[in-house]
Amino acid sequence: MSFFELTEKCQQLAVVTNERTYTYTQLAQQSNKFIFNSTQKELILILTKNTVQVLASYIAALDSGHAVMLLNYDINKELLAKNIEQYRPKWIVGDINISGYKSENLLLTRIDETSNYKIHADLAVLLSTSGTTGSQKFVRLSYGNLRSNAQSIIEYLAIDENERAVMNLPLSYSYGMSIVNSHLLAGAALILSEESVMEKSFWEEVREHKATSLAGVPFTYQMLQRIGFMKMDLPYLKTLTQAGGRLNEKLVKVFGEYAQQNNKRFFVMYGQTEASPRMSYIPHERVLTKLGSIGIAIPGGNLTIDSETSELIYKGANVMMGYAECLEDLSLGDELSGILYTGDTATVDNEGYFTITGRMKRFIKLFGLRINLDDVEKKLEAVIQAPIACTGNDDKLVVVIEKEEQMGHVKENLERLYKLHRSAYKVVILEIPRLANGKTDYMKLKESCL
User: Considering only Cβ atoms within 10 Å of each terminal Cβ, which end of the chain, N or C, has fewer?
Assistant: First the structure.
């Protein structure tokens, strides 16, 4: 099988790096260096970096018909080891040494050849449900899920072979993966970068390689405003996209007005990994008139609101097959039939534009990465052996402890387990409020800390 059909695009520009450029034919040649031969469907784990070699391995893995697990290369080593032990990938792509695997260049192969498990024929990609935490719970995405969502994105963003998208988000993050999938399927080019928008060298790359589009999470846009992005001379940059959490209305207005005044397009989008990941967008010409909204359903998708719970429900061919929490779950088929209960509550206006009003479950998004507050509590309590309560919003995680001597230990483990910058969280010393039944009073906690 061939998911990306690279050879059909031949001499079109596919990838740009600081070292060189690659046509689609040359990218196909790079992917052919990765051989995943097996008599049965196996699991490939890719530790992602924004390099040609890793991108080529992802293409080869999808084209091979095997299932692909994507994790960022800087994942906590303990959590990586747990995932490898739990899911027993046949191959690992990454510059690491793992016991039980033999290494040749970037490709590690499991020494034990026996595989006594089955992987469903439709399963294409496994993405972690919790960003950098390395959770052993994964979203199961099919080839159809990926292709459907990529085609929808190509349609509403009008992506063609003339586009050059900056790819500086992790491939292991659903937003980053969708940029790769949509642009390669459209015959467009990717500018691979590991640089931060805060670095001068990043903008040198953008100018030199004539980037036409830039994607970012809310934190990206906060930083863009801080570094004076509006004053930069970027004549080739025509499209800005934002997803990965709610961007405050003030910044949506700022960037919407900037785009309007400079003949550019600014798209605000909404999605979840469970939907491969896009579910809605605001057409760029309506951004300023629909501030605070998540827009309308993507082409081929449908959004409705449950009349009793106000939960936002999405229907579409991009909805995941289901979750995997263990190796045996990889054999499961489609469990959701294209219907996703988002866990978000919403309203809809008379033009069909939806607005998120809250969340039914306890998770926040930091820098585009979903953080389960209950998961944070559980992990930290196991480490410090003392009561902990977590709250927060899409700007900051708040961890509440009751004793000052726990402060250093909590901060150390937050950064070790979740790789959060200190600006992304705060630790508060407070007597944890309780309800009459002894459970944490999260409403009072949030009122006290935010």
Answer: N
